[in-house]
UniProtKB/TrEMBL annotation:
One of its GO terms (biological process) is endoplasmic reticulum to Golgi vesicle-mediated transport. This is YKT6B protein. Keywords: Lipoprotein, Membrane, Methylation, Palmitate, Prenylation, Protein transport, Transport. It is a lipid-anchor. GO terms for molecular function: SNAP receptor activity. It holds the Pfam family Longin. InterPro entries: Longin-like_dom_sf (IPR011012), Longin_dom (IPR010908). It comes from Cepphus grylle. PROSITE patterns: LONGIN (PS50859). It comes from the Eukaryota. The gene is Ykt6b. Coiled coil: none annotated.
Length: 137
């Protein structure tokens, strides 16, 4: 069971943009890593764009399952995992990350933020902590 990507996005009007993301592409060939990461970023944005506010969904894309949660305030999270990773755990992780992100990053920064300007460092930690289920304590 693997997690490949954990992203926080903002579903604004007219478009969705990435606020912060963490990736684990270590299982891919060195020469494929950048294109796999681009694919995950693009897929995350596309799924959030097509999701309604206040919705949760799991979407199969190639051999991955993309779990998306779009809150009513437009803040969204996407976890890209393999097919074996428990869906319930993914949505629990998304709840936790989005709640923490909204407490640490001002709502004013969401519409104009980018991975460079947003200061939120917890995604890499969550991605590695939840990498193998059950998590290591």
């Amino acid at each position: 069971m693997r997690l490949y990507s954990l992203s926080v996005l903002y579903k604004g009007d007219p478009k969705v943009h990435l606020l912060k993301a963490a990736y684990d592409v270590s299982t891919f060939n060195f020469f494929q890593r950048s294109s796999v990461q681009e694919f995950m970023t693009f897929t995350s944005q596309l799924i959030v764009e097509r999701s309604e506010l206040g919705s949760r969904a799991s979407v199969k894309e190639q051999e991955y399952l993309c779990h998306v949660y779009v809150r009513n305030d437009g803040l969204a999270g996407v976890v890209i995992a393999d097919n074996e990773y428990p869906q319930r755990v993914c949505f629990t992780l998304l709840d936790k990350v989005l709640d923490e992100f909204s407490r640490q990053v001002s709502k004013i920064d969401w519409p104009s933020g980018s991975p460079v300007t947003i200061s939120y460092a917890a995604l890499d930690g969550y991605l590695s902590k939840y990498q193998v289920w059950p998590p290591r304590v």
